[in-house]
Write a structure and sequence with these properties.
By secondary structure, the protein is α/β, with parallel strands linked by helices. It is about 25% helix and about 15% strand. It has one domain: TIM Barrel (Alpha-Beta Barrel), CATH 3.20.20.70. β12 and β13 form a beta hairpin. α1 runs parallel beside α2. The longest helix is centred in the middle third of the chain and has 14 residues. The chain is globular, with a radius of gyration of 20 Å. The chain binds S-adenosylmethionine (SAM) and iron/sulfur cluster (2 copies). One iron/sulfur cluster binds next to loops.
Length: about 375
């Protein structure tokens, strides 16, 4: 077995300026990047801290008690986040996902949710406002999140076996508490709706670690109205020591489930949707909506950059154009430097127009050491 390379370059320090273009770019919702992709999805990381230490994201050896997390003053305030989000919405964003780190660790997150829930698209529609969480605080917070205006949640859950789950979160957190959180979210109405707007469970699959949990997870969530999605283990960040041989291709996940619970492929629910949808079939081989569906997200084996309409706002206000970007554009410098809304919207417009990122499509043609990710920023900072 080859030794893992875990580079310790702090990529957060580097940043690109967010320049105000000489020619104003009006936020008219018609923005597109250099490859013709619109801007419709914004992920906002509200904290770089987490109470879990999932090995594929925040390995204990790196994220220990000496790790230099961002000081509170470096974080965008709720007012700064809401002001920035409003400008993104004017540019065409329809969906906002709060993430982190663990977003429920951010104090008074309900206040931010309330502010974002009040935003309207140019045609007067509320946003599709959602949040990704490890579920550890959900049992306590589901009701207040719903009351604040959150529409739905995605809960990360990498297995049902308590020992596997405790080993994967690496802080000995019991699976029963996350299951209780999922139940609380469902009871609070966080995700009661169409398949595209339902409560979702994300399972990161790591070959040799939790692949045996796949059929059990499928059986557990079949027929519950909850959509289980399997995510290929990705080479994000620079600290998880990613190796291709630990990626279990989604095609294999589908094969494994299909062998027990027959599946049929479904149409994508929306353009730019990252998950391939598979529905559970009835005895005649047709999709039975009562049995529900699963999704597979093949970020490694089947790139979907062509439709990537997502921007990411880091905890300290840098705009990242790709999950695998080395640097972000410093919007906070503009916000705190006194720039007007029009200037900031113009800067966002110019940055998006110049975007040509398509890392996953290019991964296959990169040098073999590319997987060490020496220049990439951590997922806990940029938001998943
Ligand atoms: N703490 C929250 C959680 O775990 O849901 C939100 C932040 S987390 C960075 C967002 C998502 O990224 C989670 O579903 C997590 O499983 C996923 N993720 C983190 N590292 C990953 C990796 N190396 N490959 C694939 N997915 C990853
Ligand atoms: Fe924390 Fe989420 Fe990363 Fe796990 S995946 S360490 S829960 S931020
Ligand atoms: Fe989007 Fe970058 Fe992922 Fe491609 S690699 S889908 S551009 S975030």
């Amino acid at each position: 077995m080859s030794e893992r390379v875990i580079p310790l370059v702090d990529q957060r320090i580097a940043s690109l300026a967010a320049a105000i273009p000489a020619q104003r770019i009006v936020a008219d919702g018609l923005l597109s990047d250099a490859l013709g992709r619109p801007l419709s999805d914004l992920r906002i990381s509200v904290t770089d801290r987490c109470n879990f230490r999932c090995n594929y994201c925040m390995p204990k050896e790196v994220f220990d008690k000496d790790y230099p997390y961002l000081p509170h003053g470096a974080l965008l305030s709720f007012e700064e986040i809401t002001r920035t989000a409003k400008l993104f919405v004017a540019h065409g964003v329809r969906k906002i996902r709060l993430t982190g780190g663990e977003p429920l660790l951010r104090k008074n997150i309900e206040v931010l949710i309330g502010q974002l829930a009040a935003l309207r698209t140019p045609d007067g529609q509320p946003l599709d406002l959602t949040l990704t969480t490890n579920g550890s605080l959900l049992a306590r917070k589901a009701k207040s999140l719903k009351a604040a205006g959150l529409k739905r949640v995605t809960v990360s859950l990498d297995g049902l076996d308590d020992a596997v789950f405790r080993a994967m979160n690496d802080v000995d957190f019991p699976v029963a508490d996350v299951l209780e959180g999922i139940e609380a979210a469902r009871a609070a109405g966080l995700g009661a709706g169409e398949p595209g707007h339902s409560l979702k469970i994300n399972m990161v699959v790591k070959r040799g670690t939790n692949e045996h949990e796949i059929p059990r997870m499928a059986r557990h969530f079949q027929g519950t109205g909850i959509v289980l999605r399997f995510i290929e283990y990705m080479d994000v960040g620079a600290t998880n020591g990613w190796r291709m041989d630990e990626v279990l291709p989604s095609a294999e996940v589908v094969r494994m489930i299909h062998a027990e619970l027959p599946l049929v492929q479904l149409d994508p629910s929306a353009p730019g949707e990252t998950a391939e949808r598979w529905g559970y079939a009835d005895a005649s081989g047709r999709h039975d909506p009562a049995l529900g569906e699963i999704g597979v997200i093949s970020s490694v084996t089947q790139a979907f950059c062509r439709d990537c309409n997502r921007a990411r706002l880091s905890t300290e206000g840098k705009l990242y154009l790709c999950l695998f970007a080395g640097q972000g554009h410093d919007l906070r410098a503009l916000i705190r430097g006194g720039a007007s809304d029009e200037d900031i919207a113009s800067a966002i417009g110019a940055i998006w127009q110049g975007r040509s990122d398509r890392y996953s499509e290019l991964r296959a043609s990169m040098p073999t050491d590319a997987g060490t990710g020496a220049r990439r920023v951590e997922m806990s900072y940029i938001g998943g």
